[in-house]
Each structure stands twice: as structure tokens, then as C-alpha cells.
Amino acid sequence: MKKILLALFVTFLIAVSATEAAPAALVKQVRYSQTAQTVRLVFDLDQLPDYKISLTENPAALVIEFAGKVDQAVLPAMTFSDPAVKRLTFGGTSPDGLKIAVELNRAVLYKAFTLTGPNRLVVDVMKEYEQKVQEEVAPGVKLTTLLRGRPEGPIAAYLLEIEPKSGWVIQPVLSNDAIVNLETVKSMADRTKAVAAVNASYFSLHGELLGLTKINHTIVSTGDLARTALGIMPDGQAIIGPVEYEGTVVLPDGANFPVAGINQRRGQDSLVVYNSYYGPATDTNQYGAEYVVKQDKVVSIHVNNTPLEPDGIVLSAHGAAADQLAKLQVGDTVRVFQTLGPVWDKTLHVVGAGPALVKNNSVYLSTKIEKFGADVAGGRAPRTAVGITEDGHILLAVVDGRQYGSMGFSLLELALFMQEAGAVQAMNLDGGGSSEMVVNGKIVNKPSDRRERRVGSALTVMPESPIKLAN
């Protein structure tokens, strides 16, 4: 009796296995149709199989797999005249038997379904789409991830919205807490314990910032032109607009000499002011003169590479400027006057970059006014931007570019995107391979260099009582 029951049980298992096993389907014909939005693929089958579909990026393809085979009358490959879909091929190895690869030129989405009478598997390759995911990454900080397919190509964008009154402040951070040298955005976010960060100002290969920056009421870098900047007031309120630095050194005899810049390489016949945000020393050559000033008094005089201390500044002069300062002696009174204008002098922090994107809720590109060249203004590229909404929320945006999954934005497209996101004021930050967003310690976008680029500064989202940064 036991043997009979065992034999019946085995027979039952074999029957169940045979019933559950996916049948091998025969692909009898492949048809397709095209529109501006979609490429529809139709596979005529003798029976409907269990199938799975996946998107791969390297190589870029939509892969369809199921237990089956292809009728000999079906072409081994199909080529498409389409901006998104390159060709369809049969073959390859798959655990399920048949592997169909739809080779792609750019990122797409898809949907699939089956029909009967006759049996068909239909796959729609969607070139135009929009997929939006929102999440609260911290109380008062919302991240929106947007994947958008457009006729021009795909876009991957990341938008942070910060409510300042919810306990967060926006604060610039220097690479390695100094002007010299460079550092990744993630490293800056990690060491300052920022909940989020994006890249900020333009910078040179040495780390010097190419634009106006102010941290904790102290001007730490300047630009040569009046360009758009983000200002953060002591109460957390943000402003965006053009701002220009003006500095003057007044000598004991009342004569004055213009300051060429703050914490930058000293040029010919110029006077540069260094403070401890620059680094450990001025790193200048021996063809000038440097005066250490504390509390408006000259305390020491050097030739070059003067150490920088938190409680003083260094006046570094060359050529005509050095001649003007040549009579200065230890103990002399020297006053340095600096201004950004009556409104901007009240700011706690400033991050300069540009051009402007949105002004008073209208698209406003100040590219020519601010004398930006093709390296910033030309074509589509990865972009970073900051904006302010009507209710005072801060928007930080990063758009990927120069890659399969995202073609990037022109400045006009970036302006329209920021306006769509609710910005009534917005400006461009550094972009290209520098564009990066870090949230809760993770890089959320895909930098176009395929790795993090070391940059000069970051714009961070910090707790309302941030850690003391240095200097």
C-alpha cells in the first residue's frame, strides 16, 4: 500500500510540474509601429509565455526573456530609424531560453501586456514620459527625483526644497575649510554633517573661487565683475541678485588704494587682501611686500608667503601698489573699507556664480550682461541651480547631462525648469562635471565625469545651529 501511495504521489508531482512549467512559445512574426512618443513592438506567438523585461545601461538595451524560440521566417535583426531605438536582435544566452535585445540610443521607459485571439506580446518603448518620486529626507527637506523623456532626449533632475523655518540653514562650505586645494561635495557634506549639499561657485585648478563668497560675515573671495549671487540673511531669509565688491585701503596720510581682490593670486601692480580663510600662508613670490594688520595697526612686515592668522589680515602688494605702501611702518594705522552695497552688507553668507535664471517670477537670463562665455552658456550640459519660492523656501537643483540617461539642460531650459518648480528668483551655479547633489551621505545624481569631481566650495543644508567651520 505504501508503494502504491508513493507511486501516486510521484505521479502527482510530475503532473503538477508539467502543468506549472512555462510552455515554450514560438515567435511567428515581429511587427512594429512608430510615433513621436512611442515605438510599439508586437510579437505574434503560438502561445503566451511567462516573460520578464529589464532595462540595462551598459549596453543600453531593453531585454525581453521567455521560454521560446523563433520561427526561421523571422528576420534575425530589425533596424529602426528612430532617435531612441536602434535595432532588435534575437539570441544570446538566457536562463529562460529566448533573449530579445532592443538596443537603445537613449533612456526610455516601457510598458508590456499580452493579448489573445491571436496571441501577442506587446511592448511599448516610450520616448516621452514623466516619472516623479518625492520623499521627505528630513523634516522640512523634500527631495523630488524627476525622470522625463522629451523629443530632444531624456532628462534626470533632482530638486531639494528646504523650508528654512523648519530648523535648517543654508551655508556655503569651503573645500578643506580654506580657499586653497579642492575637495568633493560628499566629503564636505560628511565632515560638516550636512543633511544635503550641492556644488556651488566656479573655481580655479588651485581651488581659488572665481566669484564672490562671504561666510559668517567675512568676505572670503571676490570676482572681477558684478554678477548674480545668493545671499543669506542672519534670519535665514534668502535673496538673489547682482552684487559687486568694492574695497579700499586708507593709508596714514589719507591716501587710498583700491583692493584688487580677496584671497586670490596677486597680480601685477595690484593689492590683494588675504585672511585666514585662504590657507596657512599667502603663498606669494618674493617680488612684493606684505603687511600684517591687526585691529587697524601694522604689526609686522614681510616680503612674501606670510603666515595667516584668524585675528588679522595681510595686505599683499606688488609693483605700483607696493610703491604706494612702501612708507608703511610697524605701528602705523591702516584701515580697510569693504562693501557689497547697503543690502548685501547685511548678509551672513553670499555665494556668487551666475548668470541669473529667473527674476520676479519671469525667465531672465543675464548671460551677456554678466559676460559669460560659451563654456557656461553654450549648449546642453549638467547644471546646478538655486532658487527661492514665493513663500521663502530654498530650491537646490541638479540636472544630469552628457550621458545616456540625461542629455542636460541649456540655461534657458534650466530657467524654465526652476520656474516650473516654483522659483520666483533663481540663479545658475557651477555645472558640468562639478554638478553633484548629496543627500543624507549619498550621491543621488550621476556626475558626468563618472566619478566625483573635487571642487572649490559647496552649498550645504545644515541644522540651525551648525558646527563651527574654521577661522
Automatic annotation (TrEMBL):
Keyword line: Signal
Domain Phosphodiester glycosidase: 288-461
Superkingdom assignment: Bacteria
InterPro entries: NAGPA (IPR018711)
The protein's name in its UniProt record: AMIN domain-containing protein
PANTHER family: N-ACETYLGLUCOSAMINE-1-PHOSPHODIESTER ALPHA-N-ACETYLGLUCOSAMINIDASE
A Pfam family assignment: NAGPA
Source species: Dendrosporobacter quercicolus
Signal peptide limits: 1-21
